[in-house]
Amino acid sequence: MKQNNMKKKNLKLCMFALCALVMSSCSAPKLGYFQNVESGSVEQLPPLQTMRAQAGDKLSIIVSSKNPELAYLFNLPVVGRYRPTQSGTGLSTSTVTHYTVDEHGNIDFPVLGPLHIAGLTRSEVQTLVKNKLLTSDMIKDPIVTVDFLDMYYEVMGEVNRPGRFLIDHDKVTLLDALSQAGDLTIYGNREVLVMREEDGKQMAYRIDLRDQKSLYSSPAFYLKQNDVLYVEPNSKKARESTSIGNDLLRPSMWISIASFTTTIILLVKNWK
Q1: pLDDT at 250 over 90
Q2: How many whole angstroms separate alpha carbon 192 and alpha carbon 232?
Q3: Domain 58-149: which CATH class?
Q4: CATH of domain 152-236
Q5: Taking the model in full, what pTM does it have?
Q6: Which of 29, 95, 106, 237 has a 20 to 30 Å separation from 47 between CA atoms?
Q7: What are the residue ranges spanned by the domains of the chain?
Q8: Which of 22, 12, 24 is closest to 252 using CA atoms?
């Protein structure tokens, strides 16, 4: 009698453990962002970081004035390009050449000579050039237009549209970048990695998208040109690279194991 009670107790424990395992394997992972945000909560954003010129960047700087002949002296030449077509006629396009910031952070500006612009925002470059033109006393009413050209960031890993994306405005946030890349897939780890070159060093910033404070307090909340955003695969995706993959987490797998184990135990007992 005592032995039967022990068998029943062991069977109940096994069934309880099996049910707990099945329930835990069926639980849904938390994939959403901002999981700790409450209605009406306020979080301080990091200081605004607009794009700043650095070595290798390309800029368009156009000077205009009421006197076009004077403004012409301070502009790069217009270059015509010929592109042949299938008909043989070809197309001719005209583009204004651009400035490239050298390794010392300078550009060579017409008439004015070298200007150090590394570390300056677009509006600061505009102010610098305008002040230089005014103090040169060669043009009285300069209008300076500055645009950054060919600035990119890259998004890699578990997103729907990985690739290289053009920066077309002065500030780009991490959330902007994820939206451009079509958001994370269900296999993407919600803790993302931003790789950034700063002062000749490779910096790494990890940001938990589920945590509002982690996102808004990160120096990488505002992206810079040449940043690389990497979304690592989560554990489920990583397990798929193995031979048995996620089989051990499937309820059917554990039910089969339990059934097989029970059969073996009964066979052993009957054999005795």
Answers
A1: no
A2: 7
A3: alpha beta
A4: 3.10.560.10
A5: 0.67
A6: 106
A7: 58-149, 152-236, 247-272
A8: 22
